[in-house]
């Protein structure tokens, strides 16, 4: 009974760690898998192997994978909506399902980089001057502006696959920040 | 150009076939025949023969110590390969001591406190597993891995590069030499002060400590190389 439980749990966590969307979550699932593996070895009377598995699988490789994922390149997305007065996690719901989730999936699956999302209600000019984000989503009334640099290949890919990345929004303007001069920006 | 490649290719195949024939010849004509099954041979009288109360330690430190030598060699080769690959990366002079990295506000307070509490116990259990490896489950490799885990958790709290990696590398190679010489003298050439359980136990403890220190330095070198010489 205990053996069947262990083996089924091993299978479940192995498939979780393979099919999970988020790299960090995969690493944690892998650690849980190693811990269960150590218990399984102990159940089958192999305490030496169990010790090695616990030390290497749970300790060393988990920390190593976490450090490695920290070094993976991160794509920095900033969501700006000046109409919201107090910004909290609920205010992002309106673009959660039709922009953020598909965009994250696209970045992880196709571009293989980690997306990172920040949001603010400060004016867009101030943010673009002061903070160096890779990609801006700016909501203004019914219009959605996407800002990015024309030399950025990831931004080009996002624009090229717009129908996959952004759903249910028809009014979208794409602006290349390095091709717009200052007086044009004032309009 | 192509013809010489083909000649070398044929020569390699001939060499491999010749090697296989030599191995098969030696195996068929000079292999030792034991009356009992291997399991009985290894488990019948291992305490008196090897001084280990743990059959696994008896096997990997006495009966089949040849395998242990090649395992140690394999770990050393992989460490050298990691060093080679990360040297080839452009920043060789990336020894650094960055104050910006050492910012306690970035690190979780919970992790710092918990690691501080757990750290001595992890060191203690690592040393216990190394020194008690011939009595209870465990041994050099497992204890060394636990010690390396302790050093690596130090990175989570204090991400600075103030370890002398060159010293660790030299230590690892010296330890490999010691690991090769000790069993060659003690097991193969039988240069034993006395053929008693006590002398065998001292040999076991000595070998386990050597292997533990070697695994500890090897795994730490691999980790710190990857952290400080690779990537962004």
UniProtKB/TrEMBL annotation, chain A:
It holds the Pfam family MbhD. It is a multi-pass membrane protein. Keywords: Cell membrane, Membrane, Transmembrane, Transmembrane helix. Its main location: membrane. It is found in: Cell membrane. The keyword Transmembrane helix applies. The chain crosses the membrane at residues 27-44, 51-68. The keyword Transcription regulation does not apply. It comes from the Bacteria. InterPro entries: MrpA_C/MbhD. GO terms for cellular component: plasma membrane. It comes from Alkalibacterium subtropicum. This is Uncharacterized MnhB-related membrane protein. Residues 9-72 form the MrpA C-terminal/MbhD domain.
UniProtKB/TrEMBL annotation, chain B:
The chain crosses the membrane at residues 7-28, 69-89, 110-131, 143-161, 173-191, 203-227. InterPro entries: CPA3_antiporter_subunitB, MnhB. It is a multi-pass membrane protein. It is found in: Cell membrane. Pfam families: MnhB. GO terms for cellular component: plasma membrane. Its main location: membrane. Residues 112-220 form the Na+/H+ antiporter MnhB subunit-related protein domain. Keywords: Cell membrane, Membrane, Transmembrane, Transmembrane helix. It comes from the Bacteria. Belongs to the CPA3 antiporters (TC 2.A.63) subunit B family. This is Multicomponent Na+:H+ antiporter subunit B. It comes from Alkalibacterium subtropicum.
């Amino acid at each position: 009974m205990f053996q069947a439980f262990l083996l089924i749990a091993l299978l479940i966590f192995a498939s979780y760690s393979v099919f999970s969307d988020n790299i960090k979550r995969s690493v944690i699932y892998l650690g849980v898998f190693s811990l269960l593996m150590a218990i399984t070895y102990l159940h089958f009377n192999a305490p030496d192997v169990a010790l090695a598995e616990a030390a290497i699988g749970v300790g060393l490789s988990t920390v190593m994978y976490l450090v490695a994922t920290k070094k993976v390149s991160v794509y920095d997305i900033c969501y700006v909506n000046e109409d919201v007065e107090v910004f909290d996690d609920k205010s992002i719901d309106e673009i959660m399902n039709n922009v953020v989730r598909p965009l994250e999936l696209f970045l992880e699956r196709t571009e293989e980089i980690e997306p990172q999302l920040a949001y603010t209600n400060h004016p867009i000019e101030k943010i673009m001057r002061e903070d160096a984000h890779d990609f801006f989503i700016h909501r203004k009334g019914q219009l959605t502006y996407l800002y990015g640099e024309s030399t950025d290949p990831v931004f080009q890919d996002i624009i090229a696959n717009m129908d996959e990345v952004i759903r249910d929004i028809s009014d979208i303007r794409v602006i290349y920040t390095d091709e717009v001069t200052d007086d044009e920006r004032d309009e | 150009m192509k013809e010489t490649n083909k000649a070398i290719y044929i020569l390699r195949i001939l060499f491999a076939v010749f090697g296989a024939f030599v191995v098969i010849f030696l195996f068929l004509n000079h292999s030792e025949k034991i009356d009992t099954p291997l399991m009985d041979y290894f488990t019948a009288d291992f305490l008196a023969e090897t001084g280990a109360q743990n059959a696994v330690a008896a096997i990997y430190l006495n009966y089949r110590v040849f395998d242990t030598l090649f395992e140690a060699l394999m770990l050393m080769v992989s460490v050298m390969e990691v060093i080679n690959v990360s040297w080839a990366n452009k920043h060789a002079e990336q020894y650094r001591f960055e104050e910006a990295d050492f910012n306690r506000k970035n690190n979780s307070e919970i992790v710092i406190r918990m690691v501080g509490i757990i750290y001595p116990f992890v060191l203690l259990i690592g040393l216990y597993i190394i020194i008690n490896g011939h009595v209870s489950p465990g041994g050099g490799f497992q204890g060394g891995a636990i010690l390396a885990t302790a050093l690596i958790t130090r990175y989570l709290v204090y991400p600075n590069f103030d370890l002398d990696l060159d010293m660790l590398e030299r230590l690892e190679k010296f330890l490999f030499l010691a690991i090769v010489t000790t069993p060659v003298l003690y097991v193969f050439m039988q240069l034993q002060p006395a053929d008693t359980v006590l002398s065998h136990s001292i040999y076991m403890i000595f070998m386990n400590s050597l292997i533990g220190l070697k695994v500890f330095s090897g795994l730490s070198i691999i980790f710190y190389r990857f952290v400080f010489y690779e990537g962004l």
